[in-house]
């Protein structure tokens, strides 16, 4: 009975994925280079207005890091027509919500309003693009905000520096070697002119994409978009540098002491291909086999059966230029980091040398079918996917076709890609340790 129920559930998930409705959209460019994407869904009276700028931490000067993340905060300060400190008040008082986030590749701002306030969302984002006020009081205020964020999320957070340490060792030339939070010293020493220059280069219509998703009328929305964004001047073409990393050919050992932890952590980091590469999709599936859920290989063996670790994980962090594949675990009791590493390596070798079973492969496919459906289950999620696919993958329609890539991946490819990238001589081994106690 139990086996029959599981099979039925799996078939249900697979069927759900196969029946997921195609996301319809329209896209075009304004004369100033702003790319526009429209997805109409009148099933609920809500609309998402969002702008993604093709600027992230990787676009920063190595001596002036943290600017992209800083602008995520700074561009809420106010504009020529929005009084300082009133942005969030305007949004909330009109029944909306808004936020922003920054990665090493892009910055994303969005508002969600009742559909009768679409024009307000367009006005807010056009104001952010055309009329931002970058002055000393705003810069000084946000410097304090970023300093506090760094203290909370990095300096005083358990394991808060793992990504920083891993990135410095995986990347020697590429800007991925520093984090989006950047250097507080760089921000502190930056001048007002430095910030104005960064804004002038990157926060321009021809380096941005506007997406509207939800309940709206197409023709009227196009007119409003033209009215609010059409007159914004086109910026100068952006000159982007390219960075190439030499292959890692022998194990890089790293260690970090964290005063905020008591349990050590072992992390194995591998440099992987860019997110548009088919192999990046295959690595997504490999990480799912290894550590997605309690029935995954690493969890079942190391946490559940052998009870050697509190937690194990594997994830593929795909980005525009390179990816990072991370595997690791937290030992329990007297188990050492070396023992956890050995157990992890044994499972990686199995992936490299043996085909996963047909049953395991079918379960894997079902997981990705379900993820695909969930990613497109809200207009907010659809808006994000559409603009991200346009900007970072150069394929807006990937929102409809990406699942076909996962469906086409074979068991043989899982084995081959694991063998290509997840080798001991191609990785960083990071021992993330509690701070040493002084001798009595």
Automatic annotation (TrEMBL):
Signal peptide extent: 1-20
Tagged with keyword Hydrolase: yes
Keywords from the named record: Hydrolase, Metalloprotease, Protease, Signal, Zinc
Listed Gene3D superfamilies: Metalloenzyme, LuxS/M16 peptidase-like (3.30.830.10)
KW Zinc (keyword) present: yes
Domain Peptidase M16 C-terminal: 190-367
A matching Pfam family: Peptidase_M16_C
Residues in coiled coil: none
Highest taxon, organism lineage: Bacteria
Chain ranges of the Peptidase M16 N-terminal domain: 36-177
Stored InterPro entries: Metalloenz_LuxS/M16, Pept_M16_N, Peptidase_M16, Peptidase_M16_C
Sequence similarity: Belongs to the peptidase M16 family.
Protein name in UniProt: Peptidase M16 domain protein
